[in-house]
Design goal:
single chain; alpha+beta; 35% helix
């Protein structure tokens, strides 16, 4: 049976900045929230969120027999010009390494994702123990901050969940606490509302706004500590 510790070390070997594991299952709470959010039109013109609903909520509909979701993180600084290509390449390397060590068996299905499938990436990263969702709606890793890209490797092998469950019982404090710098700085006033309205987010129309990440104290403290590989 796969060991989370060995998988994490293997991810480091191919160049990922962190790696976590979650048990593949339908995420019911997120499904209910997303259905209501889309029904209210908060997603704006992102019509793709209206499609493939069940596949978005359940990785077992993407990969038959899926048992394990490996979530890998790579910081912006280490992702290169095209993070999709960089992460996908590293996911292939990770799969090849695990195969060479006879830790997994080959699958004929597409099982590596990075913005390439209906996948709630930040939520799965949270379930994998890689951080919490901050007030800026980004995944905030305790030591990498929120400037991270996410990729997934979905496997049909089971993991030693005893080790993972022990980790999950530990309460992860919110990195945001009483801070609301991102809320105050958001130029579109999109944050801090009971429901996040994507149409108010500048990045929704320009894809360029990073203010909520730029003002985050955690990211600021990491600026001089994370260097390109």
């Amino acid at each position: 049976m796969l060991s989370p510790a060995i998988l994490r070390q293997s991810a480091f070997e191919v160049g990922f900045d962190d790696c976590g594991i979650a048990q593949a299952c339908r995420i019911d709470d997120d499904a209910d929230f997303m259905d209501q959010w889309v029904a209210q039109g908060w997603h704006g013109n992102m019509a793709y969120l209206e499609r493939n609903r069940e596949r978005r909520y359940n990785p077992q509909t993407l990969v038959d027999g899926a048992q394990t979701v490996i979530v890998c993180l790579l910081t912006y600084e280490h992702s290169g010009h095209d993070y999709h290509r960089t992460i996908k390449s590293k996911l292939y390397e990770l799969e090849a390494l695990l195969l060479s060590r006879q830790l997994i068996t080959p699958t004929a299905q597409q099982n590596k994702f990075c913005d390439s499938a209906p996948f709630l990436e930040r939520r799965w990263a949270q379930k994998a123990g890689l951080g919490t969702i901050g007030k800026n709606h980004q995944l905030i890793h305790p030591t990498l901050g929120s400037r991270v890209h996410i990729g997934e490797l979905v496997l049909t092998e089971q993991t030693d969940w005893t080790e993972r469950q022990t980790q999950e019982t530990e309460q992860v404090p919110s990195p945001c606490d009483n801070c609301q710098r991102c809320i105050d700085a958001c130029p579109g006033h999109a944050l801090g509302q009971p429901q996040w309205d994507a149409r108010k987010c500048i990045a929704y129309t320009t894809h360029k706004c990073t203010v909520c990440q730029d003002v985050c104290p955690i990211n600021i403290s990491l600026t001089d500590t994370i260097k390109p590989k």
